[in-house]
Design goal:
Structural class: alpha/beta
Number of helices: 7
Distance between the termini: 31 Å
Helix content: 40-55%
Order of helices and strands: EHHEHEHHEHEH
Number of strands: 5
Largest sheet: 5 strands, parallel
Strand order of the largest sheet: 2-1-3-4-5
Oligomer: single chain
Radius of gyration: 20 Å
Length: 215
């Protein structure tokens, strides 16, 4: 029999795995530790170990504010087309004493842009030290809970829970978790992320089913 004719068209592209985009600051950028020790890298390994076919893109920058994250987000959404966006921003706004209204508006706009691009959003809450004054500290914390309630978002109330005040888990600056604290950050986040993974997976499976009557 004659040899099969060679292919002339392009080979089919490999399916791109769904993406989780982490939009964060130094807590997520791995400040002061090796990148492979950070919670974002640990998340990628856990997803692989548990059979979730996601890739994680870390779009976190040390020193980032909500204004900087908002400015960078449109390009990141267009480039990576994430299924889930984890928003871990606001801590630097608080530490710099920036107006609460600015932080609130920026986070709301970040959520709107991510949802507008078809992504589900997980909001990560932060707290600031009480020496900023109880009114400012309380108002800062309420930004996250109020936004989550208004936009019906899953909210991790405090990312550094059981880490920030635990001896041996923070770096010398008292702001950034060390390598030993990173697994606890992931442990704090995972229960809030897992339902989004399941929902996104279910949506993908429904979308991939053939239409009724299709052959």
């Amino acid at each position: 029999p004659p040899a099969p004719a060679p292919r002339t068209g392009p080979l089919p592209a490999a399916a791109t795995p769904p993406t989780i985009l982490v939009l964060g600051d130094s807590i997520s950028a791995g400040y002061g530790i090796a990148l492979e020790q950070g919670w974002v890298a640990l998340l990628q390994r856990r997803l692989a170990d548990q059979g979730y076919g996601y890739r994680v893109v870390n779009a976190s920058v040390s020193g980032e504010t909500t204004t900087g994250g908002l400015n960078r987000l449109p390009r990141a959404l267009a480039l990576h087309r994430p299924t889930i966006v984890i928003v871990e921003l606001g801590g630097n706004d608080g530490l710099r004493g920036l107006p609460l209204e600015t932080t609130r508006d920026n986070l709301a706009r970040i959520v709107q842009l991510a949802r507008g691009a078809g992504a589900r959003v997980l909001l990560v809450g932060m707290k600031i030290p009480p020496n900023y004054g109880p009114r400012y500290a309380s108002g800062f914390e309420q930004i996250f809970s109020e936004l989550a309630r208004r936009e019906r978002l899953p909210l991790l109330p405090f990312f550094l829970d059981k880490v920030a005040l635990t001896p041996g888990l923070m770096q010398a600056d008292g702001i950034h978790p060390n390598a030993a604290g990173q697994p606890l950050l992931l442990a704090n986040l995972w229960p809030f992320l897992r339902p989004l993974l399941r929902a996104a997976t279910a949506r993908s499976e429904v979308a991939s089913r053939p239409a009724a009557g299709a052959k």
